[in-house]
Known about the structure:
Blueprint: H1 5-12, H2 27-36, H3 44-60, H4 66-73, H5 77-83, H6 89-96
Amino acid sequence: MISDASTSSEQLENEDGFLREMSSWSRDVAEELARKNNLGPLTDDHWKIIEFVKNYYLKTGEGPPIVKIGKCTGFSSKHICDLFPCGVAKGAYRLAGLPRPYGCL
């Protein structure tokens, strides 16, 4: 548990706002990152995507494309984009503790 989530999450982030180490991830950190990126409060649908993205990365070593997220969660691409309007990489990947993908601006 993080006693001062704001200060602690800042210490865990790199200059792009992604976690330096995936092992630093927790639901509390994800909630704090969501607040900082105007993505909260997180709903069950957010968490379904965050958990899917995190598990997919742990199995494959890369983040899933939005089509795969939609197919596996049952959500439309529009719904996913509504949940993460800053994009899947800067939204779901960041909140799941994944590193910034190569080529992500």
